[in-house]
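Support request from a user on the community tier.

User writes: "When I paste my structure tokens into the form, the page sometimes reloads and wipes my input. The last time it worked, I copied everything first. Here is what I submitted, just in case something in the input itself triggers the reload:"
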């Protein structure tokens, strides 16, 4: 981080409070890899990972509006766990969460799915009606086209979600323990999502996670 800025620094990064507001310049808000949150500095937390920048963005946007309108600022509370995913060059990816690591083509497909879904949020074809011919003339309300596209996807994912709600942890652990050539990810992704929201289920699945490659 450049020392030319007169913004207060901490550990070489812009120092911010829990509102993601500069501790020296209250009219400045920041997030992502360029900040240190003073409340968590002793924990060296949160890590420099994109998931935190994504979650901080809406808080910063809201707090800029609140500051302009002299309204109370919103506090950002970083999540303690996140799904780490890294792709390799052979259409295989490595993932880690809940104290376990998994790898395979299904992890690559899952990351590709997550990334593409995120990028759709910035695609003008989902933000404006007939964007190709009319440009930005007719903004859509609440991502209407994206919702229609999502409804088609739900025809596939809906039954899988219902199955995962009652899946036995031993079976779930076995599914996550598959070999690296397995490419089907939807059910495994839903298992990871349920683990995020159900600590008892998470612990049980982890106890049955025994992939051959470990």
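"...and here is what came back when it finally went through:"
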């Amino acid at each position: 981080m450049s020392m030319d800025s007169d913004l207060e620094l901490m550990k070489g990064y812009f120092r911010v409070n829990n509102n993601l507001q500069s501790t020296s310049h209250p009219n400045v808000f920041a997030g992502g890899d360029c900040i240190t949150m003073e409340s968590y500095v002793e924990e060296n937390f949160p890590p420099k990972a994109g998931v935190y920048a994504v979650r901080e963005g809406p808080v910063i946007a809201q707090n800029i509006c609140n500051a302009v309108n002299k309204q109370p600022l919103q506090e950002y509370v970083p999540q303690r766990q996140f799904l780490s995913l890294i792709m390799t060059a052979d259409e295989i990816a490595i993932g880690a969460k809940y104290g376990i690591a998994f790898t395979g083509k299904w992890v690559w497909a899952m990351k590709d799915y997550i990334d593409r879904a995120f990028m759709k949020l910035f695609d003008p074809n989902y933000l404006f009606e007939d964007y190709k011919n009319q440009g930005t003339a007719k903004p859509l309300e609440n991502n209407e086209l994206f919702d229609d596209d999502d409804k088609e996807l739900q025809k596939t994912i809906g039954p899988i979600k219902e199955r995962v709600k009652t899946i036995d942890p031993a079976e779930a652990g076995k599914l996550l323990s598959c070999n690296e050539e397995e490419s089907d990810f939807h059910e495994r992704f839903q298992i990871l999502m349920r683990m995020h929201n159900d600590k008892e289920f998470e612990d049980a699945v982890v106890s049955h996670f025994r992939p051959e490659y470990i």
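Agent notes: The reload is a front-end session timeout and is unrelated to the input. The mean pLDDT is 91. The CA atoms of residues 165 and 194 lie 8 Å apart. Escalated to web team.
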